[in-house]
Specification:
cadherin binding, 711 residues, phosphoprotein, mainly beta, 4-stranded mixed sheet, signal, calcium
Length: 711
């Protein structure tokens, strides 16, 4: 802030009031500069309304009306998108076409949507492909595969990511889970259950007396088979309770008991009213797809791993008698075939492109295992060949293309899929330490001129664009070239922050206003990354007494210019003794004979204590007689100044170059009296009170600071 009435003479004082004055913002009472004294959070408070006023430093009266202004806090990207309504639950009918609406998710970013891309959110699916897709802008989830069957799989868990900065590198991300259920539709006709066989016990009775109840005697196969009575034929119908595996057991033998439902107790003595029969069931072998050793494979690979690097392997086995060789391939419906390859014989998975964790952190795709003689392998192999050669390499590719066209419309895909076994592959891309840590915000800090050694003037922290693992630590230190006799040093607090610490007893803004401090920041990941960040430190005056500061500035200039030769008239502030002279014996400073010859004085009309004014007429002086005594001459000149209306009523200097004979008086001034400043003891300044504190500190700083003793 600056007032037009402020002429730089130190007569104006600036005050600050309103929202955050004194706690968040402070004002330099002399210059009007406003500084923030603590970190600001736009999401906590986006703007501050303050009032400022310029007052007279002596009378404390306002020089101008109070003015109001607003400080807006500029946003940075420090908030990740959040799904406030997650996790989500949704449903969609089974057998829905591709693109059927499922659900819309929404992530909220607390950053400023009107500034940059900090709040521009892009949606993507991390887990749940190829079954579902999401619109990157709207967050609408839709089906991505046709004819999803509830009877095959009913529940799906989809992992959704929202990333700000428009999805660009360095954006912050948040995730949520969407649980999707396929609801049932009437897509299956009624069917008779498959039975294994029938047995019949003959009872010559009639009616209800001939009703028979069948039971399987506990033993071999009792938990795999069941038997019920056909009410119409009174036959025992044997049914299967659990699936059978030919490779595990090829035959089962058990006993079935037949008894009457309605007994007549009068005939118990005739013997038990039941009979038993032995049943033998043979299990037939069918051609089954190979079986993977795990239900899910999870693998890890570092980003930027060279193309062709093997990251894992899958294993499937044909359990049928006379097992066949197994071939592996990536499901063409998933996206994994472009980033990874699989060895058809060994099942090893390798990278096919360079991976970037900041772009995609996880891949989810399917591997199909099929027998060599199975048409599913031929189908997928032909699919890849046609994709590679676009059909031009085959002279009779029409029939094959018909199969592929039918497959893409799912006319034969389900049949072929039943002959091959799928398994999901989840590959996590691990972070490589690529980026060095940097200071979170470009800092420019300040230090008071009267600062003491060991004072912390700024706290700094670091940020790393890499995914920071648990326990990530940053270390702070000075660069080697700045560690030799430093004016400032860096104190590492071992908590990912550091403090800028003073090493001197006071700083002079006149001697050096800006200091540049190179700070080296290292992370703890492998390989170690580091960067050098230069902080700008500005020396500020922290005392409001402008007169004292101005006096010190002039005191230290030590210039030998003629009196009143400066472009700025500072007569109202400082009494300037240009030269005290050396007495009668000093013939270099003044011509003592001029004092003894008044006529010579009469010829010199120019005064050395004030600036000449061309508009003012020279004063008329009475001539002085030749033999006038010096004492009378001086008294005459004093009288002329007393009665002269043009004589200066302001603080001025009348130069008297003659002290008189035998004077025992000391110098009229101590300013520039000594040969060096080190010859003068300024300790007495501390006894003059608080108004001279800055002056005492500035004159004492050179005595207390010894750069050779700084460690």
């Amino acid at each position: 802030l600056h007032s037009d009435l402020d002429k730089g003479e130190g007569t104006v004082k600036y005050t600050l009031s309103g929202d955050g004055a004194g706690t968040v913002f402070t004002i330099d009472e002399t210059t009007g500069d406003i500084h923030a004294i603590r970190s600001l959070d736009r999401e906590e408070k986006p703007f501050y309304t303050l009032r400022a006023q310029a007052v007279d430093i002596e009378t404390r009266k306002p020089l101008e009306p109070e003015s109001e202004f607003i400080i807006k806090v500029q946003d940075i990207n420090d908030n990740e998108p959040k799904f406030l309504d997650g996790p989500y639950i949704a449903s969609v009918p089974e057998m829905s076409p591709v693109g059927a609406y499922v659900l819309q998710v929404k992530a909220t970013d607390a950053d400023d949507p009107t500034y940059g891309n900090s709040a521009r959110v892009v949606y993507s699916i991390l887990q749940g492909q190829p079954y579902f897709s999401i619109d990157p802008k709207t967050g609408v989830i839709r089906t991505a595969l046709p004819n999803m069957d509830r009877e095959v799989k009913e529940q799906y868990q989809v992992l959704i990511q929202a990333k700000d900065m428009g999805g660009q590198l360095g954006g912050l991300a948040g995730t949520t889970i969407v649980n999707i259920t396929l609801t049932d539709v009437n897509d299956n006709p009624p069917r008779f259950p498959k039975t294994i066989g029938r047995i019949r016990a003959v009872d010559p009775d009639f009616g209800q007396n001939a009703e028979i109840e069948y039971n399987i005697v506990p033993g071999d196969g009792g938990n795999l088979f069941d038997i019920v009575t056909d009410e119409d034929t009174q036959e025992g119908v044997i049914k299967l309770k659990k699936p059978l595996d030919f490779e595990t057991k090829k035959a089962y033998t058990f006993k079935v008991e037949a008894s009457n439902v309605h007994l007549d107790h009068r005939f118990h003595s005739a013997g038990p009213f039941k009979d038993t029969a032995t049943v033998k069931i043979s299990v037939l072998d069918v051609d089954e797809p190979p079986v993977f050793s795990k239900p899910l494979y999870t693998m890890e690979v570092y980003e930027d791993t060279p193309v062709g690097t093997i990251i894992g392997a899958v294993t499937a086995q044909d359990l049928d008698v006379g097992s066949s060789a197994v071939r592996y391939l990536i499901d063409w419906k998933s996206d994994g075939d472009s980033y990874f390859t699989i060895d058809a014989t060994e099942g090893t998975i390798a990278t096919n492109e360079l991976l970037d964790r900041e772009s995609t952190a996880q891949y989810n795709f399917s591997i199909i295992a099929s027998k060599v003689k199975n048409p599913v392998y031929l189908y997928y192999a032909t699919s890849y060949l046609l994709t590679a050669f676009n059909g031009s390499a085959f002279s009779s590719a029409k029939d094959i293309k018909k199969i592929l066209d039918r497959a893409r419309t799912n006319e034969v895909d389900d049949d072929l899929a039943q002959q091959g076994h799928r398994v999901n592959i989840l590959i996590n891309v691990l972070d490589v330490n690529e980026f060095p840590p940097e200071i979170s915000v470009p800092y420019e800090t300040a230090v008071c001129e009267n600062a003491k050694p060991g004072q912390i003037i700024q706290i700094v922290s670091a940020a790393d664009r890499d995914l920071s693992p648990a326990g990530q630590q940053f270390s702070f230190k000075l660069s080697p070239e700045a560690a030799i006799k430093p004016n400032f040093t860096v104190r590492d607090f071992r908590n990912n922050t550091a403090g800028i610490e003073t090493r001197r007893n006071g700083y002079s803004r006149r001697q050096q206003e800006l200091y540049f401090l190179p700070v080296v920041i290292e992370d703890s990941s492998y390989p170690v990354q580091s960067s050098t960040n230069t902080m700008t430190i500005r020396v500020c005056r922290c005392d409001s007494d402008a007169i004292v500061v101005l006096y010190v500035a002039l005191r230290r200039q030590k210039k030998k210019d003629t009196l009143m030769t400066s472009k700025e008239d500072i007569r109202d502030n400082v009494i300037h003794y240009d030269d005290e002279g050396g007495g009668e014996e000093d013939t270099q400073a003044f011509d003592i004979g001029a004092l003894r010859n008044p006529k010579v004085i009469e010829d010199n009309k120019i005064r050395r204590d004030i600036k000449p004014d061309s508009l003012c007429l020279p004063r008329q002086r009475q001539p002085v007689e030749d033999n006038t005594d010096i004492k009378d001459f001086i008294n005459q000149r004093l009288q002329e100044n007393d009665v002269d209306p043009t004589a200066p009523p302001y603080d001025s200097l009348a130069t008297y170059a003659y002290e008189g004979n035998g004077s025992v008086a000391d110098s009229l001034s101590s300013i520039e009296s000594l040969t060096t400043e080190a010859d003068q003891d300024y300790n007495y300044l501390t006894d003059w009170g608080p108004r001279f504190k800055v002056l005492a500190d500035m004159f004492g700083e050179e005595e207390s600071y010894n750069p050779d003793k700084v460690t």
